[in-house]
Every structure is written in C-alpha cells, then in structure tokens.
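pinning this so it doesn't scroll away 📌
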Amino acid sequence: MQRRKTLCKGWIFLMAEMKNVTRIPPELFNLKLNDAIAGELNKKLANKVVLNVGLCIALYDITSLQESYIFPGDGASHTRVSFRYIVFRPFIEEILVGKIRSCSQEGVHVTLGFFDDILIPPSALQHPSKFNETEQAWVWEYDTGDGCKHDLFMDAGETIKFRVTAEFFNETCPTGSLQETQDKSENKVPYSLTGSINEPGLGLLSWWDT
C-alpha cells in the first residue's frame, strides 16, 4: 500500500508501507530498540532502489514491532518490523524541475540532485532540435515567426522543466555466474525515468521567463 505525502517544498514523495526482519548486532544492544532498528533500516534502504517501489529516501516511522529472537550460533537479535519509508517515484505525466546534467546523441540527461537517471530522448525535445557536436548540447531551432530562427542551447547546468512519460525498473540482483552478472549489469540501472519537453511551457525555464 502506498500513498502520497508532501514532505518538502517543491517535492512530492510516496510513503511505502514495508515489512522486514531486522538484525541488530550485539554492539547496538545499548540503544533503544526503535533507534537501533531505525538505524539498520536506513543503512539497508537509504538511497537504494526497491524493485517496483522506487528510490528509498529515509525512514518515516515504525508502525509495529514483534518479539525479538536469537538464532543458535548468532548473538544478534532479529525483530520482525512494519514501517513506512519515504520513496521517490513520480507519477507518469507528473511535471518535475531539474537541471541538465549533460547532453549526448541519446538526448538530454537530467538530474534532480538526488536522482540522476532521467533521459529526455530526441523525439521528446522541442521541434525542431539538433545536436551540436562542438558544444555537446542540443539546440532548439526556435522559429521567431518572421521567417528567422533563433538557436536556443540546452547547456549543462541549466534548469529544465519536463513531463515524466515513462519509468523503467531493472532487476539487478546477482543471477548465474559472476561473469554473466557483470556483463548483464554493466550498463543497467535499477530505476530510470523518461521525460518530454515537447510542449509549450516545458524546457529551460529561461526560455519562458524571457
């Protein structure tokens, strides 16, 4: 079960309800159980992608704790815990604002600061656009309406507003031999977004400010 919650100005995140059996090593027994579990959950999940859930940001709260137990031969305690975790996973068609990280033939690569795997492909840029090899930037050939065109560069570091059009999750857990895992995971990211700016009001904020 997931629900939306506004957590800070300008960003909206999911709150995901999760369950886990959390291991607390003996050196943490001096802490309150809630504090020890919160630390271990953040160590395990913060800045990690959970398949089909999203990018985990931080623990929101612990909703229930069951009895702790110890396995034979293991001095740590194990506690079944239910908790809510703050997760980044925007809706499809949601409008986001980020910064251009770089440009390539593949399109415009965008970062939100805490999340970098966003691509705006050439087909989703303002039309017509071309890639400038010298500047390593995409350029919108803006028609001024008087028969002239003005080149608007999409430079790295510029603030850009875009619409989320697709999301992709990839299973990155090891399977098969180590070599097969390395080959398959070489260019695979666990979670990525595709965006679009091919409509009025989207693209570089500087375009519409002026």
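📌 and the second one:
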Amino acid sequence: MATTKTSSSVLKLAGTVLNRRQFSVSKVAAAKQMTVRDALNSALDEEMTRDDRVFIIGEEVAQYDGAYKVTRGLWKKYGDKRVIDTPITEMGFTGIAVGAAMAGLRPVCEYMTFNFAMQAIDQIINSAGKTFYMSAGMVNVPIVFRGPNGAAAGVAAQHSQCYGAWYAHCPGLKVISPYNSEDCKGLLKAAIRDPDPVVFLENEILYGVQYPMSDQALSNDFVLPIGKAKIERPGKHITIVAHSRAVEISLQAANELSSKGIEAEVINLRSLRPLDVNTVTASVAKTNHLITVEQGWPSAGIGAEILARIMESEAFFHLDQPAIRLTGVDTPMPYTKSLEIAALPVPRDVVDAAKKLLKVK
C-alpha cells in the first residue's frame, strides 16, 4: 500500500485549476483568500479548542503534519493524546475511533485517501452507521471520517475513485462533498459537532487552491448546515448540479455559456446525504433544463439519484428536454495522462450538453 501520493504533478494540476478560475467579481476579489487546506486546518483547530472531546487519529497526522498538511501544527499545539499517529491499519484505527465515539468522545478519523478506507468500510458502515438504529437510539456515534476522495493526478485506478455514491447509499451516514474553502471550513465544523457519523469527502487537487473567505466565514462561529445546497451562480436557462471539483468545471462552463447569451444556474450540492432536492427542483422549475456533473462513475451515481428524484416529483413536468448526466467514464481510471484526461468531464463537455438541451449551435 502506498503511504504518500503528494507529487509535483498534483501540485502543478492544482495550480492550473487556480489559474483557470475566471469567475470572480470585484466583491469576491476583495475578500480574504484561503486555501482549502488551511480552511480545513482552521476548522479542526477551532473545534479542538472549543471541545476537548475532539481528537484526530490516522496515519502521519501528528509529527508529519498529515500527508497533505491538513493537520499542520495541531500535534505541537494539542499533544499526543489529541493528535494520534497510527500504524498502517485502517481497519484497526477506524475501529478504535468508532469505539471512542460510542464512549462519548468526538474523533476525526483521517485517511490518506478514501481508497484506503475500503480496508475499514465494515467499521464505517456496520459499526458507525448502524449502531444508533440497532441500539434503538441509545448510542450515538459522533465521528467524522475525512480525507481526499475521487480523481487526483497520475495515481491510476486504485487511487482515483469517487466514493460519494458508495457512502450516500447507506442509511445512518451523513455524506459531505465540499467544493471551496468556505464549504470545507463551515461543513467540517458542522460535521464535528454532529451527533451522527459523517463521511467528509475532500478533493486532493483542490487542497492548495485559494478561494475567497467572507468575514463571516473567518469567524470561529461559522458553521454551515448539513443537507443544504448553495446556488453558486444564478441563471434562468439551464440548471447545472455538481459537487466537489465538478462545481469548478461547471462554473467554468457557465462562464463560457454566458458569453453566448446562455445563463446557467450552477448548484453546489455540498451534501450528498441528506440531498437537498428542494433547491434542485426549484431551479428546474425555473430553467426547465437539467444537467448533472460528477467525476464518479455513471452507474447508480449521484447524478442518477438526482434524475430519479426529479422524475418522481412535480419537477419532472417542468422539464422541456430529458435531463443529461455527465460523469467519469465507466472504466477504472487509466494511468496514462492522455487517457486520464479523457476519463473525466471537462468544461467543454458541459457546454456541449447545454447547447444540445437548448438546441443551440
């Protein structure tokens, strides 16, 4: 099992993402900029200061400051009892964390990648996710499982899959898939305070990318509600729904569509379970067209779930055209760079899908 995957290619790709961001306005540009990594670190620090039951456990989270430096400085500040390095045994340290949560503590369990959390999926789903139900509501399991999820760069099939749909399938878990720095800070704080197990799916490529932070988001009291989506860009012609890095792709596509007179409404889901269907249906009722964008596989994916919910609701009758899913290609992630690029949605795919729905050349 690989233990670290941070590489110059990942950092270069993150820089490319940052350079491509062209949807800032003057108000946003004036806001303080913060990387996703630092936003996560701030959330952990603030919650550990606020509640001494919170502790971090995982591989290299302490003296090494975390594989992606998300826990940087926390071991020096809080010590061995609250920032705990473990051997390479995901099943083992996840079980320890789940037991600690049952006993009243609030663990934050970090994985170097959610691909490695497959070693511990029994603990996450059967032990953490089902205990509240199986104990007739007597035993809460307040725990956060967090780490990088989805496609990175140059790490091939076993380290590149999105687990959003996997965990969102399971009752008993809450699943968060944040996009930018405000999402990461506000939702991680909410996850740590939540009485139930939360799977927190970060994106490796976005760790080093800076996003604007409002004065409110910089406050220690900033907490975002779990289960509430955000309209990142309002529009009237077509609705684009995405999560995690796919929001960035959708915003870039919306920028290009705007230059052609098409105003796309971009919805950042933020949470995959519970899913904010109301925000999506209200947008579809306004725009009459829908595209979903994700980097996960198509079969039984998040986009498939959204389309099913729309079909089962009144919103179906507002659609002027069948909705479209844009997903990763239905194959394990290739290692070859050219094929890796071809395996994931890009802004051009979103633009072409929007033109197809709106019958625009």
